[in-house]
């Protein structure tokens, strides 16, 4: 029973984040709104499917995820909290700065909770920088999409 409640809480958190993203992206015009609305729709459908299986008491995943389900709850909480801070950060610091910080923190959190040695830390920061640079190239240079600048930028 407790496991089912935990699953439903996690699903509710993800659904709430999707709805918050939908509200934030409601001011977009065509064609800018197509991808966010499609992604939100997919997330909400997956949440509904997972909520159905969780309410019926059936496992949502097999294999490693099913065996380590009790360890996923803190990861969901950390990921949800980081995502909320990221959304706020995008509005304050801008898209690219917030994306870099978000990726660097999550790479470090999910790669191991102990403080890594300097070479591993630099590799994780370099990975976040490379991913952010790739996102910049795709959105700003190829697709010519204006990303949020933030209040401080």
Calculate the terminal CA-CA distance, rounded to whole Å. Answer: 48 Å
The number of helical runs is: 6
Q: Overall 3D geometry?
A: flat
Class by alpha and beta content: mainly alpha
Q: Which runs of at least 5 residues are low in confidence (pLDDT < 50)?
A: 62-71
Summarize model confidence as the mean pLDDT: 76
Which series of helices and strands comes N to C?
Answer: HHHHHH
Helicity, in percent? over 70%
Question: What's the gist of this structure?
Answer:
The chain has 6 helices and no strands. It is an all-alpha fold. The protein folds into 2 domains: 60 residues; 86 residues, no CATH class.
Describe it for me?
The chain has 2 domains: 1-60; 68-153, no CATH class. Helices cover 76% and strands 0% of the residues. It is built from 6 helices and no strands. Helix 1 packs antiparallel against helix 2 (34-56).
What brief labels describe this structure?
6 helices; flat; 153 residues; mainly alpha; 0% strand
Write the layout of secondary structure elements.
Blueprint: H1 2-24, H2 34-56, H3 64-67, H4 69-93, H5 95-111, H6 118-142
Helix pairs in contact: 1-2, 1-4, 4-5, 5-6
């Amino acid at each position: 029973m407790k496991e089912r409640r935990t699953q439903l809480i996690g699903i509710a958190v993800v659904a709430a984040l999707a709805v918050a993203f939908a509200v934030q992206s409601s001011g977009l015009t065509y064609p800018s709104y197509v991808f966010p609305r499609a992604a939100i729709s997919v997330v909400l459908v997956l949440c509904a499917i997972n909520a159905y299986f969780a309410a019926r008491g059936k496992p949502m995943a097999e294999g490693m995820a099913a065996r380590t389900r009790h360890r996923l709850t803190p990861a969901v909480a950390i990921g949800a909290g980081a995502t909320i801070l990221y959304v706020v950060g995008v509005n304050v610091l801008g898209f690219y700065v917030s994306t870099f910080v978000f990726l660097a923190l999550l790479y470090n959190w999910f790669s191991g909770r102990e403080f890594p040695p300097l070479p591993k830390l630099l590799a994780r920061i370099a990975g976040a920088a490379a991913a952010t640079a790739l996102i910049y190239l795709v959105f700003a240079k190829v697709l010519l999409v204006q990303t949020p600048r933030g209040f401080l930028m």
